[in-house]
User: Fold this.
Amino acid sequence: MIQSSRSTLRFRGRSYLAMVLVPQIPLRTWLADVDTWLVRSPGFFAGKSLVVDVTGLPLTQDDFVALLADLKERKISVLAVEGADPDWLTDGLPPLLTGGRNVGAEATAENSRRMTTASDSPRSLVLQIDAPIRSGQSIVHPDGDVIVVGSIASGAEVTSAGSIHVYGALRGRAFAGMYGDKRARIFCQRLEAELIAVNGYYRIADELDPRFHKKPVQAWLDGENLRVATLD
Amino acid sequence: MAEVVVVTSGKGGVGKTTSTAALGAALAQFGQRVVVIDFDVGLRNLDLVMGAERRVVYDLINVTRGEARLSQALIRDKRLDTLFLLAASQTRDKDALSEKGVERVISELRSGFDWVICDSPAGIERGAALAMRHADVAVVVTNPEVSSVRDSDRIIGLLDSKTVKAAKGEEVEKHLLLTRYDPARAGRGDMLSVDDVVEILSIPLLGIIPESKEILRSSNLGVPVTINELSSEPGRAYMEAAQRLNGEEIAVTMPTERRNILNRLFGRRAA
Assistant:
């Protein structure tokens, strides 16, 4: 850790959406496709953050450098590359990115296919929120657990791929394991929920045993039965 | 430079306009220059509560559209000469408010006043969004009942996301003003307790205003309760809330159940 007596440098992690371009062999044909594409939509790549994914392509360092030069010639600015040999990335070449995830639809040129790579992403998949979730707010986390340090208000909802942990009162709605995780659970310090659900199996406030009201509880899925128990 | 305050609630009928008038008049009595703005275009009320309804020539819409100058539209209070009103238009609707126009009016007012208090309309639509847009401070008016508390919670979420301050990554300072509080009903458990409301909304308490006939009377007379009935319980409660808003640290007084001697003797049996 670097420490300075005057001021500290501040770094933050932040994720952005980038378009990933996947070249194909033979590169000459592929570049011809790019040119055709550019004739039809000249401004297509202008101002876009572009990542070039060369994973699995049988390229030499020279091929790779030539490819980047060809793209530059076409005014396609490359933010970073994926799947390249780190040794190729000499000074002046864009940095290497790892751990990307696919989002949304792939708007790719015809003839090009997205190569799927087994990505084991190293980043933490927990979403931590250090403020109360207010009525009308909706938190959706499709990657992992959600931890709320504060309460979830009546009329607010949290949807999570994994478990939901509430260090406060759960007064709104909590949907855990909404993308198929049957082992997801809901934990809260004070149950006053309007609805709790795990993997689509839900209970509304009326169906919750009154003895759990305002108690610290956990809820989990037992077969097709959503079970609740106090935490003590 | 003025502090821009929005008095807001989400729910209607909780006492936003009454509170705007009472806090504005209280701050003006501390010698501060105050302007209260009615953002409830189409359903204006603040002019009535301030007793200025017969002196409105130009309104907020006229100023935002450049049809009148601010100095022509500001109405000076007859009782307090540092208190001004910018009335809403009754004949237009909220779509007539332009974002640019509101921004210009607020920034112009900022330089001439200590406090710019915006009386928000109910709801979360355009009028309410524009009233809170430039706020530095929010007074969230809430009644001790569940629907009002939930609507206030929603408004707090919007204050944290839809204001200029939020866009800059700063936070609007939020205060809870609990109004129409009835100690007797709270005692019987018919109402949410002060602690419940503070716990749910988790913002600091600015004051507790008891439900009272003095407020009704003041509104009908067109005199803010902090001018007319300063010694009454709500008058004092608003005065203290204004002092807290002004940065003074005074403990919040819990309204107590008022009973006359007959109530005290027969209250229990009658209940």
Summary: Chain A touches chain B at residues 131-132, 134-137, 150-151, 153-156, 169, 171 (CB under 8 Å). DSSP finds two helices and 15 strands in chain A. Residues 25 and 57 of chain A are 7 Å apart (CA to CA). Helices of chain A lie at 27-40, 61-73.
